[in-house]
Amino acid sequence: MLSIRNLRVSIKGKEILKGINLEINAGEVHAIMGPNGTGKSTLAYVIAGREGYDIEEGEIIFKGRNILALSAEERACEGLFLGFQYPVEIPGVSITNFLRTAINEQRKYKGLDPVPATEFLARMEEKKQLLELQEKLASRSVNEGFSGGEKKKNEIFQMAMLEPSLAILDETDSGLDIDALRIVATGVNKLRRPDNATVVITHYQRLLEYIVPDVVHVLFDGRIVKTGGKELALQLEEKGYEWIRNEA
Amino acid sequence: MEAGTIPTLYNLKEYLAGVFVAKQHEITKNDTPFIAEKRAKAYTLFSQAGFPHAALERWRSTDLSRALNHEYQALPEPPSAELDIDKIFKCDVPHFETLLVSKLNGWYADRKNLIQVFPNGMIIGSLSVAFSRYPELVNAHYGKYADDNAESLTALNTAMSQDGIFIYVPDNVTVEQNIQMVNITDFKKNLFLNTRNLVILGENSHLRLVQCDDSINHDVTFINTVTEVKIGRNSTLDHYKLQNKDDHTTLINSMYFHQDEGSHLSTNAISLNGGLIRNLSHVTLSGSHSSADVYGLYLMDRYQHIDNQVYINHAAPECESRELFKGVLDDHASGVFNGHIKVHRDAQKTNAFQTNKNILLTDKASIDTKPFLEIYADDVKCSHGATIGQLDTEALFYIRSRGISEANAKILLMYAFAADVINKISITELRLRMDDMVKKRLRGELSQCEQCVLNCSTQEHQRVEFNIDLSKI
User: What domain count does chain B have?
Assistant: First the structure.
């Protein structure tokens, strides 16, 4: 599904990602762990198509196509989704309208007609229950006045509505209490299918007790220094990032 | 050349002076001695001051010279008695129940019913007829709130306006219908129009008033409208100004509100298009416990210019004023916001709040925003804030990462920015309609003659598709 080959990225002359290689197949859940400031969020942003980064070398192949030349919206329409660490507030635009616009633009990209209103509302209902969202949440403005937990739930709700092939969840667990964490994780697990994949970026092992990864990568100083199974996350928890630092 | 004078090919002031003398009989035809005296005084004031120019502080950033540099014709004839206004103008706001009161080229349009008295005592009609029919009402309020000394264009209006709309709501009357005042211009030549309205609310009365400006001709038009509004004790006025004019139009819209004790005013100016628009909202809170909400939204592009002048005169204690103006300026558009709050020495416990927020979409667009607080009382709460910014890049990326195109993401953010002024509109149908028009405006699809059945030739070209419909939620 996603192949990243020797990706080197810098911002204003400073190299952040120093040759990333990553292979993700359909049906898999990957976790990317690592201490702060090692390039985890940069990697997520670069995959999602945020502007302002210099791609020095390498390629990102998504479903067989190099997506580096595509805009953020084209990548989304191709099936990429980024769950933001800090979701942005958009006062005056309800979640319902926001999602309907997004879904219809994605459908337009694929040459499909807009989603019929009844179908859209039915899907909303279904996904709202999945994430135990309050009835009123969908008519509220996007993220405006939301608590940290509500914002993160809303990210997963959007993911559920947009049904991406590959979702990258950037620090979705940060700022969540244990109940919200359980709900978010349950949502992600229920959305798992043989034809989609998820990348969970996290600082702590805690989230991985709920979303069990197939592969764990450790990102350190712009490189993936270790890749292993779910036991790698436990090792990290036990030994701390110092262990990686010493090994690297 | 003298400092501050405007070089023009046509000397408009001289032309108007000539008209004033030559057409004296025609101009004063319906005058009572009271009106005639006001007119003469105002003419002297205008002759001395001339047109406003950049050397005047309040006109520093609004340059009228281009608008004045045309050969205009003033004093249009009144429409014929056979005029059927419904054939010229039809409001297309769905389910918008209004009592339509129209003016054509400044004249009260319903020539067969120049004065209408309603069962509840409300009077609506031609101002020039009201001069002699209701002298006690007219003489108590006409020219009392409009400031001919401070604004030479207001003086010009007092000197030369011939007609307009007169509305009187007696004490203890709640007007159920929305009243929609439509100012239509239809003239085969360049028109210089002075038109005047007088609105009087008695005590404990309630009125919703929607003022629309529409043009049918596409010739150069200069409209100088003055509206005086008296809001009696414990009365409320909910007022809207909708401006969607073509780029050849100069619109000077001066509103003078005078509020008595316990009264409440809400006024909202929504400017979607117009070559040059200057809105003056002059509010005097003359009785204690009165309050005024003054809102505005402007979305300008090309070489359009918008100027919002707000003067809140806190003359009595324990009053409150809240100002919120927001604008988006694109291309070479320019804007001015001037918010003057004056708190008199005995206007203790005044609350006055002012906010002006702007988004500039290009580096050629400009805004000159200036709060001006003049406070003589010591127990007051006043605040002001002005911001000028661009669209938030983080928010743009967030929206685009959901698959929404950059163009639509920008529209969505601008719409979100405008929404809190639109949401202040308390008439639901009007709010939905404005919401729709703002969206169309942001998409670049709004034609200037959106509301008018005659001008349906403008092609609505779908530049981008944007699917947001608050009414469906």
Answer: 2
Q: Is residue B449 predicted with pLDDT exceeding 50?
A: no
Q: What pLDDT does B92 receive? A: 64
pLDDT digits (tens, 9 = 90+) for A119-159: 999 999 999 988 888 777 777 889 988 888 889 989 999 99
Q: What is the model's pLDDT at position B471?
A: 35
Nearest CA in chain A to B407: A73
Read out DSSP for B227-249?
EEEEE-TT-EEEEEEEEE--TTE
Does B406 lie in the same domain as B266? no
Q: How confident is the model at residue A73 (pLDDT cuts 50, 70, 90)?
A: very high
Among chain A residues, CA nearest to B414? A92
Helix (H, G, I), strand (E, B) or coil at B436: helix
Q: CA of B52 to nearest chain A CA: how many angstroms apart? A: 39
Residues B402, A102: C-beta atoms closer than 8 Å: yes
Give the position of tokens 């010009």.
B156
CATH classification (class only), A2-247 = alpha beta
Task: Look at residue B424 and tell me if it is in a domain.
Answer: yes
CA atoms within 13 A on the CB side of B453: 9
Q: Which of B287, B309, B344 is the last residue of a domain?
A: B287
Q: Answer yes or no: is B353 within a domain.
A: no
Q: Percent helix, strand, coil in chain B (nearest 5)?
A: 25, 35, 40
Report pLDDT for B468. 39
Tokens of A168: 């990258």
Mean pLDDT across chain B: 88
- Contact criterion met (CB below 8 Å) for B318 and B290: no
Q: What share of chain B in percent tops pLDDT 70?
A: 89
Q: Are strands A29-33 and A14-24 parallel, antiparallel or unpaired?
A: unpaired
Q: What is the pTM of this model?
A: 0.84
On the question of pLDDT at B452 being above 60, the answer is no
**Are B38 and B186 found together in one domain?**
yes
Q: Would the pLDDT of A50 be above 60?
A: yes
Using one digit for the tens of pLDDT, what is the confidence trace for A177-198? 888 888 888 988 999 999 999 9
**B68-80 tens-digit pLDDT:** 988 899 988 888 8
Chain A residues at the B interface, defined by Cβ less than 8 Å, are: 48-51, 71-73, 75-77, 81-82, 84, 87-94, 96-106, 108-109, 114, 117, 139, 141, 158, 162
Strand partners, B75: none
B465 close contact with A: CB closer than 8 A: yes
The residue among B400, B420, B443 with the most chain A CBs within 10 A of its CB, best to mutate, is B400
What does the domain layout of chain A look like in residue ranges? 2-247
Point out the residue among B395, B403, B470 whose CB comes nearest to the CB of A76.
B403
- Residues of chain B in contact with residue A157, where contact means CB-CB under 8 angstroms, are none
Q: CB-based burial of residue B424 (10 Å sphere; 0-12 exposed, 13-18 middle, 19+ buried)?
A: middle
User: In chain A, which residues have their Cβ closer than 8 Å to the Cβ of B418?
Assistant: 92
Q: Rounded to whole angstroms, how far apart are CA atoms B282 and A19?
A: 65
Q: Does residue B79 lie within any of the structural domains?
A: yes
- Asked if B462 has any chain A CB less than 8 Å from its own CB, the reply is no
Pair (B275, B159) in one structural domain: yes
Chain A: closest CA distance from residue B403 (Å): 4
Q: How far is residue B349's CA from residue B344's CA, in Å, rounded to a whole number? A: 11
Domain boundary among B240, B272, B287: B287
pLDDT confidence bin for B473, thresholds 50/70/90: very low
- State whether A93 and B468 contact (CB < 8 Å): yes
Find chain A residues with C-beta within 8 A of B416's C-beta: 90-93, 141
Is the confidence metric ipTM above 0.90 for this complex? yes
Token pair recorded at residue A208: 């991985």
Whole domain around residue B191: which residue ranges?
Answer: 12-287
Residues from chain A that touch B467, judged by Cβ atoms under 8 A, are 97, 100-101, 104, 114
Partner A contacted by B471 (CB < 8 A): no
Please report whether residue B25 resides in a domain: yes
B467 touches chain A (CB under 8 A): yes
Regarding whether B398 and B283 lie in a shared domain, the answer is: no
pLDDT at B245 > cutoff 90: no
